[in-house]
Amino acid sequence: MKSDFQISNECEKKHIADVAAKLGINSEDLILYGNHKAKIQTKNIKKDIREDANLVLVTSINPTSSGEGKSTVTIGLSDALNRIGKKSCVALREPSLGPVLGRKGGAAGGGYAQVVPMEDINLHFTGDMHAITTAHNAIAVLVNNHVFQGNELEIDKIVFNRVMDMNARDLRHIKINAGTDLERNDGFDITVASEIMAILCLSESLGDLKEKLKNILVAYNKKGEPVYVKDLKIEGVITSLLKDAIKPNIVQTLENNPAIIHGGPFANIAHGCNSILATKTALKFADYVITEAGFGADLGAEKFLDIKCRKSGLKPKAAVVVATVKALKLHGDIEEKDLKEENLEALAKGVQNLEKHIENLRKFNLPIVVALNVFVTDTEKELAFLEEWAREQGVEFSRTEVWEKGGLGGIDLAEKVVKAVENNDKELQLLYKDEESIVDKINTVCCEIYGADGVNYSDEVLKEIERIESLGFKNLPVCMAKTPVSLTDNAKIKGRPTGFKITINDVKLRSGAGFVVAYANKVLTMPGLPKNPSALNIDIDEETETILGIF
Ligand code: ADP
């Protein structure tokens, strides 16, 4: 099998204006970045949602650290829908350099289900990550400068840190103004956890973006009152820095179908979905929009529904749950080294993880199709076992081979998704109401979705929640931060655990984005690199300017 890059390199790409024209987007509404990438000028596009367009969410079981093929299936499903005569477009997140240079790889799909040019998309793309990093750090610099220059607002405690789009372990905790009266602790998160990233993804226009930026909490003053971006009067410059980053990017799949890729918050430490503008733009022009939310359905799908859909009015008509034989076997408690062996016992145990995610998605009233992302190492007995299991559960199931065959390997999945969408007569049901308290919302997610018996809060966390509610933010949704590889807050516990509690270690108000982040156990908001990072494999041919070794 060829590498992802070899396959993408062989793709005969169409000019991006021709790909956009397939959707009905005029070339005057494109800002070209060469021949194969463009930004879409959304100013002239009406924001109402077309009721007859169909949004489909792709999610997964709790994944292994290498991913289960959600992006791959999302792209392959859209290509398959186009093959069966549906006008379909994907809406995906932009990759972060953290995983690209680290361990997991990119976010441009794999095998014969990819978006291209994958090396550009994975490396700098159209510069959105850099703009978001700069906008975030500009706020940090300006608030610190305010304190240095006389501190008119009487700032006592700055609660706005810095970001970098890399796995910079060494910058997690830093000391600034070393050796001066203003010496204090500070630190970096990865850009995809930045509130600016979340705001960009939840904004519907430049005006909306500015309004949300105004409300970012940056500090508390000496009286303990909040200080927002608007108090510093810097929303104008920060919005200006994001003028282009807010416009969705369009590229193409290997089968020359449109793909809108925009915004990229991680789903373990942020809300995990591409931008509302990208999804709504795609829905304006395509009849089917296939979108993905990060990691498993406990994180990505829950936040897609309870944050993104709640705020935007978007309503998916079906969910595809991606599972792999290898991950289900891992949930059945076998060792990684034994994964290649056929093991129906482990599969029977591990499939309970999939069962829980199906039960959870049904709580939102979503029809479900399980996409079993087939690996060449899967045995016929294993696949047949899962097929039979799905039949017993009364859930649609499709063997999906888009990695190996492109859209052709997803025809069965596409047909089942169309059927699920067309037969769906239920109203989307969100998990909790705006008016519920922050603690009730956290408890509901932990007990209903993760399957916990209860939630532990320290007095400090409860005090912070009280402060957030007293500032008038009780009605915000919660954005859970948790390990993606387990339904619990402990990465080592697999399958479908019962009899556990979730421990909330910290909560943070994100008043600009409009949610409260609740951190379950120890979650790193700045990852580190592995001993042999992918960065060591990446090179460039100086003559042809071809990027080498990128997956
Ligand atoms: P996710 O979106 O769930 O994180 P990706 O779609 O990014 O997962 O896929 C993760 C990696 O697995 C990619 O390198 C991709 O090429 C590879 N992959 C996905 N599906 C298959 C498959 N069926 N067989 C082999 N490799 C696959």
Automatic annotation (TrEMBL):
ATP binds at T64, S65, S66, G67, E68, G69, K70, S71. Residues 337-364 form a coiled coil. Its EC number is 6.3.4.3. Pathway: One-carbon metabolism; tetrahydrofolate interconversion. One of its GO terms (molecular function) is formate-tetrahydrofolate ligase activity. InterPro entries: Formate_THF_ligase, P-loop_NTPase. It is an enzyme of class 6 (ligase). NCBIfam families: PRK13505.1. This is Formate--tetrahydrofolate ligase. It comes from Gemella sanguinis.
